[in-house]
Amino acid sequence: MIRWLLRLVRLLARLAPPRARDRWREEWLAEIHHIAEVRGVCTAGAVILPLVAVFMTVVGLLAALGPARRGLRLHPTDALRDE
After folding, report:
1. What angle do CA 32, 12, 15 make, to 5 degrees?
2. Which position has the higher pLDDT, 26 or 14?
3. Threshold 0.85, pTM exceeds
4. Pick from 10, 50, 60, 65: CA 20 to 30 A from residue 27's CA?
């Protein structure tokens, strides 16, 4: 699952222009190393936590899509009339 998340991050990083991507990567890695040193965690933990947060957000949005689409099929006045 972590490999899938890393592939997703790499794919999103490829969409950025090369100069911005390189600058972003350097700043991001420097920030991760700084956080890892300050918090006393390994670098992998500093990477995995934001990835898990993004993954959980995506899963939550996908879980909400099903009921929302089903609710959009009904016309509100028809639903109220049936009650």
Report:
1. 120
2. 26
3. no
4. 60
Query: What is the C-alpha to C-alpha distance for residues 43 and 66, in angstroms, rounded to an integer?
Result: 36
Q: Is the CB of residue 16 less than 8 Å from the CB of residue 24?
A: yes
At position 22, the amino acid (one-letter code) is D
Give the C-alpha separation, 41 to 27, whole Å: 19
Contact 43, 33 (CB under 8 A): yes
Distance, CA of 70 to CA of 68 (rounded, Å):
5
pLDDT tens digits along 53-66:
999 999 999 999 98
Confidence band, pLDDT 50/70/90 cuts, at residue 83 = low
Q: What amino acid occupies position 67?
A: P
Is 72 in a helix, a strand, or coil? helix
